[in-house]
Amino acid sequence: MTTRGKVLIIAIVVVIGSLALAGVFNRHTPPAPEPEVVVPVAPVVTVAIDPGHGGRDPGGVADDVLEKDVNLEIANRLAELVAAQPGLKAVLTRTSDVTVDNQLRLQLAESAGAVLYLSVHVNSYDDPSVNGAETLVDDTRSQDDPSWKLAESVQNALISATGARDRGVRQQGLYLEHTKLPAVSAEVGFLTSTEERAKLLDPSYQDKIAQGLLQGILDYLHAAGALKEQV
After folding, report:
1. Tell me: the pLDDT tens digits for 83-106?
2. What's the CA dihedral at 74, 75, 77, 79 to 10 degrees?
3. Bridge pairing between strands 114-123 and 183-190
4. What is the spatial distance between Cα 44 and Cα 230, in angstroms, rounded to a whole number?
5. For 9-31, how does the pLDDT look when each residue is reduced to its tens digit (9 = 90+)?
6. Which residues are CB-contacts of 199 (< 8 A; sequence separation ≥ 6)?
7. Which residues of the chain are modeled with pLDDT < 50?
8. Staple partner for 183: which of 3, 137, 176, 229, CB 3.0–4.6 Å?
9. Domains of the chain, first to last
10. Distance separating the N- and C-terminal Cα atoms of the chain
11. Are 99 and 56 in contact (CB under 8 A)?
C-alpha cells in the first residue's frame, strides 16, 4: 500500500471515530433545560364582611321583614363581587341564619388575616319618614384612626351607587372597639321607611348597594397602598 493510501485510510478512521464519539455524547448528554421563568404572585388582600345580627337576633323588624335577612343577602352579593376582583378575597362572619357572637365575628376576621372589617346593617327608627344611608365608626376610635378614611370611602361610594339620602359618617358606641382592624358599620337604609324598605328588598337595589360597598373598599385600599396595581 502506498503512503498516500495509508494516509487516506487513517483520515477515514479518524472521521468515523469522531462521528461515533459525537453520537455517544449526543445519546448521553441531553441538552441543557431552558431556565424556568418564575412569575411573582401578587399577595391576596382579605376583607372581612359581617352580615349583622342572625339566628336568635333578628335585628330590626318592620312589616314582618327581618333586618338579619336583608343584611345577609346584601353581604353575600358583596362577597361575590369582592371574590371576583383580582388580588382580593372575602371572608364572611356568617353565611347562613345563625347566631354568631360579636367577639367571635371579630376573631374570625383577624384569624383570616383581614385588613379591614365592614359590617352590613339596615337601620330602624320610630319615625317612618326617616331614611337614608350612613356609615358608623366606633366612638372609641381617635380622629387619626384609619377607620375614618374607610368610613368616608364607603359612605361616598354607597351614596354615589344608590342615590340614597346622605346621612354622613358618624360615631357611635359599637362592638368594633374590640378589634384593631379598620372597622366600620354601613347602615345602608331604613327598614322602617316604607319606601326605602321596598328598595332594600329589591334585588337590583341590593346589587347597587353591594357595588357601592365594593367601590368604597377598593377606594380605601388603593388610597392606603394595599392594592397598588393589583386591581
Report:
1. 999 999 999 999 999 999 999 999
2. 170
3. parallel
4. 9
5. 444 444 445 545 455 445 555 66
6. 189, 205
7. 6-16, 19, 21, 24-25, 230-231
8. 176
9. 45-224 (3.40.630.40)
10. 84
11. yes
CA distance 166 to 147: 19
What is the Cα–Cα distance from 85 to 65, expressed in whole angstroms? Answer: 32
One-letter-per-residue 3-state SS of the chain: CCHHHHHHHHHHHHHHHHHHHHHHHHHHCCCCCCCCCCCCCCCCEEEEEEECCECCECCCEECCEEHHHHHHHHHHHHHHHHHCCCCEEEEECCCCCCCCCHHHHHHHHHHCCEEEEEEEEEECCCCCCCCCEEEEEECCCCCCCHHHHHHHHHHHHHHHHHCCCEEEEEEECCHHHHCCCCEEEEEEEECCCHHHHHHHCCHHHHHHHHHHHHHHHHHHHHHHCCCCCCC
| In the block, residue with C-alpha cell 362592638 | 175
Name the one residue in this structure whose C-alpha cell is 316604607. 194
Scanning the structure block, which residue is given the C-alpha cell 493510501? 5
